[in-house]
Each structure stands twice: as structure tokens, then as C-alpha cells.
Design goal:
The protein has six helices and no strands. It is an all-alpha fold and 149 residues long. It has one domain. Helix 1 runs antiparallel to helix 2, helix 2 runs antiparallel to helix 3 and helix 3 packs antiparallel against helix 5. The longest helix is centred in the first third of the chain and has 22 residues. The protein starts with 22 loop residues before the first helix and ends with a helix. The relative contact order is 0.14.
Length: 149
């Protein structure tokens, strides 16, 4: 007796990671809040909100990597806030924060609590998550994708 095993097709209903209607809203809200908070991190490099030294000091104009990192952080945060080019921007921001962690914080101490690198590490992983899952329901990228259909 021979049996034939048909290939198993997977539909949206049989996937284990089915999305609830709230998922897109929660992802969008998280993206907006996190990018809004991250924009302040970028603005600190220009002397706002206490600056990089707590006294209002900014990174010297054009200096590498500090000034350029602040530009990338601010522009990236604004793009991510509205959800435009979300995935590439999130990958870029994740890399910027990983670079900051390993070049600025890690040489000071082994653990993030010792080297004050916890925000850089957390932001790096959160941005990597946004690169993987996308911007959520309320984003310019999502509107563009819907319009193309």
C-alpha cells in the first residue's frame, strides 16, 4: 500500500503567530513613543536638554562620530516617528546605538549597569525589533503600501 503525503499549505488562520487587530496599533504606538523619546537623545548632542555634559554643552560641529551621530539620531528618530523608510532607518539606528555601546560604554566596564550603556543597548535592540516587525498600522510606509495595492 502506498500513501501520498500532500504538502501542507499554511494559511493565515493556521499560523501560530496570528496577529490580533490590536497588534498594529500597539506596534505603532510603541514606535511613536520610542522614536519621540529617542529624538531627545539626538537633540542632546546639539546642547538641548542639558546637552552631553549636563551643562548645555553640545558636540562640536562636524566632529566625528559625535556630531554625525546626533544628526543620524535626530533625523532617524523623526523618520521613524512618522513611519517613513521605517525598516532601513531602524537598522541604521540599531547600528548607531550598537556602535555607541561598544566604543563608548563597553571600554568603561563589562556590564551595562557598570558602564552606563543600558540605554544604548536597549535602544539598539528595540530598533532591531522594529526593523524585523515593521512600523505597525499607523505609518507612512503602511499608507504607501496600501495605496500601491
Amino acid at each position: 500500500m502506498t500513501t501520498t503525503i500532500a504538502p501542507r499549505t499554511q494559511t493565515a488562520a493556521t499560523r501560530t503567530e496570528t496577529k490580533s487587530p490590536v497588534t498594529g496599533l500597539v506596534v505603532s504606538a510603541s514606535r511613536i513613543v520610542i522614536s519621540f523619546l529617542f529624538s531627545f537623545h539626538g537633540l542632546q548632542g546639539f546642547g538641548f536638554f542639558g546637552g552631553i555634559d549636563g551643562q548645555g554643552g553640545g558636540v562640536p560641529f562636524g566632529s566625528f562620530p559625535g556630531w554625525w551621530a546626533s544628526v543620524i539620531e535626530l533625523v532617524g528618530a523623526l523618520l521613524l516617528l512618522v513611519g517613513l523608510a521605517s525598516r532601513p532607518v531602524a537598522i541604521l539606528l540599531s547600528g548607531v546605538m550598537a556602535y555607541a555601546y561598544f566604543t563608548v560604554h563597553a571600554p568603561v566596564g563589562l556590564l551595562p549597569l557598570q558602564n552606563m550603556g543600558e540605554p544604548a543597548a536597549v535602544y539598539s535592540w528595540i530598533f532591531l525589533l522594529f526593523a524585523a516587525i515593521g512600523p505597525g498600522r499607523f505609518a507612512v510606509d503602511t499608507l504607501i503600501k496600501r495605496h500601491r495595492r
